[in-house]
């Protein structure tokens, strides 16, 4: 194929390619005529169209991206909206809970209020008793009145041994300590073995007793028809003397009888036991095992602490107002013990320059011991006006103060009132801090206090 032919074919192909496009745009011959001239421009236009198409694609992509962004934003907003809705739901639930709590609180307050109504009579510290309760408990209410009571002197004191009830355990002959049977502080009974001793003198006396006892038994068996009256009398006297000797040396009657009944000379070994001559508490030990004890040497001291002495130191100027037998009281800590004046010293104490007043006090529950310092109150012969109630009408309150129970307007309604306890004497309590004519419980106070305690317990349990 020559060049000319190639060019013609190329031109023909180009005309056929753009003919439909020209005809579609303009169905006139003028447009068809310009196809050749505008081919280059059209090529550029196609390139522009391609760029525009790419640009359109980019814009579409951006639009899709924007829409995607909007979608994501929508999703985020939707998520936030969901969180908000969830929060609102939780808030609503919380509101319901709070409402439930409020309703529960109201119910609790109503329920508590109901209980409060049940114990309304106890909310002010009072108790109501009906006539049947008061009769069963034996409650008696009386108005307080001023009474003539003996004045009292207050004085410090010291607890001492009651020497009238104190014994000292000592050997009567020289002996060796070989065994102990009690310890310091132990309570012993009368006749209880305290310590075992051994003595040569006791061994000789025991042997003589066994010989005299055998002779006396033989003479008694033979009878007065066989032996002379003189021999009979001598045998009996020797037996009595031998028995008295071992007893004087320290053997007790039960120990002597045991030795004689055995008729065994090997038991005459000099051993014997010192026993307690009265009941009491071992307060002092002054020996060791193996010690050689001399006659009269104190080994053990025993005292009966059921009653003790208290020496009150009273100024001489007022001591003359006190008489033997006057009532008194001894206070140790919070406890008060009744006492009475047993003796008044006629000489002053060399150190304190006071008159010693000896009080006899009953030691309840072994609460007092020698050496303790106490406070005393001793009644005198002079009298004064004071408020007095039975001792059982004054009780300790929950906080430790003394109180009586006062009638509140109507019968059976009582309330505790704090008072000052001046002293207790012969079952009568002298009190202060309350007005005369006040109606108080004089009998059955413990029952009233118990009822108040129960009502208070029930209140606190609500």
Please give a structural write-up:
The relative contact order is 0.13. The longest helix has 80 residues, at 39-118. The chain folds into 3 domains: 3-86, no CATH class; 128-161 and 305-460, Efflux pump adaptor protein, beta barrel domain (Elongation Factor Tu (Ef-tu), domain 3, Beta Barrel); 169-300, Beta Barrel (OB fold (Dihydrolipoamide Acetyltransferase, E2P)). The chain is 41% helix and 31% strand. The model is unreliable at 17-121 and 457-462 (pLDDT under 50). It has helices at 3-25, 29-33, 39-118, 131-137, 200-222, 229-249, 253-262, 316-319, 445-460; strands spanning 126-128, 140-143, 146-160, 166-169, 175-180, 187-188, 193-198, 271-275, 280-285, 292-293, 300-303, 307-314, 327-332, 335-348, 355-362, 373-390, 395-396, 402-407, 413-418, 420-425, 428-432, 439-443. It contains 9 helices and 22 strands. α5 runs antiparallel to α6. GO terms for molecular function: transition metal ion binding; transmembrane transporter activity. Residues 26-126 are annotated as: Disordered. InterPro entries: Beta-barrel_RND_2, BSH_CzcB-like, MFP_Cation_Efflux, RND_pump_MFP.
């Amino acid at each position: 194929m020559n060049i000319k032919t190639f060019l013609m074919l190329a031109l023909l192909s180009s005309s056929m390619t753009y003919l439909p496009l020209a005809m579609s745009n303009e169905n006139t011959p003028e447009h068809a005529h310009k196809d050749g001239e505008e081919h280059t421009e059209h090529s550029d236009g196609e390139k522009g169209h391609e760029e525009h198409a790419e640009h359109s694609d980019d814009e579409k992509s951006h639009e899709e991206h924007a829409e995607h962004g909007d979608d994501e934003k929508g999703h985020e907003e939707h998520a936030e909206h969901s969180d908000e809705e969830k929060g609102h739901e939780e808030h609503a639930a919380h509101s319901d809970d709070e409402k439930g709590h409020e309703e529960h609180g109201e119910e609790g307050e109503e329920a508590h209020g109901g209980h409060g109504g049940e114990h309304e009579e106890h909310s002010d510290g009072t108790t109501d008793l009906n006539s049947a309760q008061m009769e069963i408990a034996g409650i008696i209410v009386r108005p307080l009145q001023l009474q003539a009571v003996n004045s009292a002197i207050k004085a410090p004191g010291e607890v001492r041994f009651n020497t009238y009830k104190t014994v000292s355990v000592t050997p009567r002959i020289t002996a060796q300590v070989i065994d102990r049977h009690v310890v310091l502080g132990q309570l012993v009974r009368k006749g209880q073995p305290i310590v075992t001793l051994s003595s040569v003198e006791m061994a000789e006396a025991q042997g003589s007793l066994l010989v005299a006892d055998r002779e006396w038994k033989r003479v008694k068996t033979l009878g007065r028809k066989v032996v002379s009256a003189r021999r009979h009398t001598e045998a009996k006297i020797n037996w009595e003397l031998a028995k008295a000797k071992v007893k004087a040396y320290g053997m007790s009657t039960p120990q002597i009888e045991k030795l004689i009944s055995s008729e065994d000379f090997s038991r005459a070994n000099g051993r014997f036991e010192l026993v307690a001559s009265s009941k009491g508490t071992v307060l002092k030990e002054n020996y060791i095992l193996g010690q050689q004890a001399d006659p009269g040497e104190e080994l053990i001291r025993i005292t009966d602490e059921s009653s003790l002495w208290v020496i009150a130191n009273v100024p001489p100027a007022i001591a003359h107002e006190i008489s033997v037998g006057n009532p008194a009281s001894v206070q140790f800590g919070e406890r008060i013990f009744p006492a009475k004046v047993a003796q008044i010293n006629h000489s002053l104490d060399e150190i304190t320059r006071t008159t010693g007043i000896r009080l006899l006090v009953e030691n309840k529950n072994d609460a007092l011991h020698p050496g303790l310092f106490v406070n005393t109150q001793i009644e005198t012969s002079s009298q004064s006006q004071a408020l007095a109630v039975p001792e059982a009408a004054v009780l300790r309150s929950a906080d430790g103060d003394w109180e009586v129970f006062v009638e509140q307007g109507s019968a059976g309604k009582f309330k505790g009132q704090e008072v000052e306890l001046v002293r207790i004497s012969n079952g009568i309590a002298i009190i202060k801090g309350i007005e005369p004519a006040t109606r108080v419980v004089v009998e059955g106070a413990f029952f009233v206090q118990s009822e108040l305690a129960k009502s208070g317990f029930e209140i606190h349990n609500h």
